[in-house]
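Bench notes, afternoon.
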Amino acid sequence: LFIFFGAFLQKSGAGRFFIDLPMALAGKSAGGPAKVAVMASALFGSVSGSAIANTVSTGAFTIPLMKRAGFRPHVAGAIEPAASIGGMFMPPIMGAGGFLMAELTETPYAHIMAIAIIPALLYFFSVFMMIHFEAKKQKIEGIREADAPHWTRVLKEQWYYAMPLVIITVLMIIGKSPGYSAFWATLSCIGVSWVRKDTRMGPREIWDAIQTGAVNTLIIGATIGVIGIIVGTISLTGIGLKFSDIIISLASGNLLAAILLVGLASLVLGMGVPVTAAYLITAVLAVPPLTEMGVVLIAAHMIVYWFSQDSNITPPVCVAAYAGAAIAGSDPWKTGWTSFKFAKLLYVMPLLFAFTPSILFEGKAIKAPQFQDELMGAMVMDVMVTDGTAVAKGDTVATVLDGDHVVAITAKRDGFIKELLITGGSFIDGGIPVAETRAKPRQIFSSVFSAILGTIAFSALTMGYLLRKTNLLEWIVLAAATLLLYWPGFVTDGAGLLLVTLVYMSQKWRDKRDLTPAPA
């Protein structure tokens, strides 16, 4: 039904609104046409469910506009697919992957949408900032004021196109089923199409939308059906368990190394298959070792889901980037690598999901210590908390009998117990998660605030530009600032901002020096 909703929304004439509103908001700023591509891709991608469809649909308008503004063809062709894959993370549809994640984690889809929105917006913000720095570096201006509509006029004349998105989101938030929400939102698309005479959906237009939705549904259904065979084979042959052992062995207990291995595996497994299939295959193989190493289940799935999108923009198989290159008339290989550059946050967010899960409203799992008896483990004696209990750093969650000693398992940080994974009298191994936690509001705010600051610094670092091109020393300082800013905490944020300020002052001084005439 969500696929049909996307088809009906496009047929209703909302595509014009998805272009006009970004044009009014960002078209006149530096690199305006490329920023329009980012915002249009966020709007269109939230309902299309396909990075390639997003690239072709919005790129047909935005890529020629970027080229006329002064962007080189391979850059114009790369920006659109880099922005378009963000639609796979953007609620309410998130491709078919969001629904699969809800099923695999036994989590309501409304919750999946809620935790996905902030990372998705951060991704678009990253591409937006990289475009800004690229435009400043290449001295590319925005479109003329006469060619850009005013945002108040766009909202006044086309605000109703946002209603289907509002309806589907509100219905999901208040607890209605995905099918119920999509059904009524689809009907609302027909209603809004009748506001303008030239977009009214009659029987022929409705039938065209049904055909489009049916074709897209069959493609996704066939893909999932075939992948079901692969997943069944993995399960029956034990390949999944072997793969988990390989990752844990190669990583030697290092979570960062494990995430990098999962990213590499996702790229290889994703070559030549749709991203939904890549997610499902990689999830079956990679989620178990990640959770065994202490990553929260929903965070592990988000790591795999984000990595599964890399085959769209990472050479050698970067289908969305090749589609952008075809529209731009540029070198596909060069366009693919440039698209990879603009989409680099795709590889940063999985690290944040693992090390700062509060950005997903989750806390870190509470893990058991290593026990003396590594063969038998330890017996759980008492469990001091229940689901929903608030815990502070140092609070005892449970006690276990390790040989002749009673050992307390304590919380490493503040949070709420989300789910207990142990019961009294059971035996547990050392190092396994005993409870999953949910972050407190201040932890969520801190992680989001740090991520915003870190993304700005990361974008400047990637493009090698802040106020002007960075030299090697400034680039190294920006790299250190990025690491500090991404780590949540007021001390690290302050230190990171201080380093960014030093780079800013250095570049201001260099600008002033270059403008000062040499003495006669």
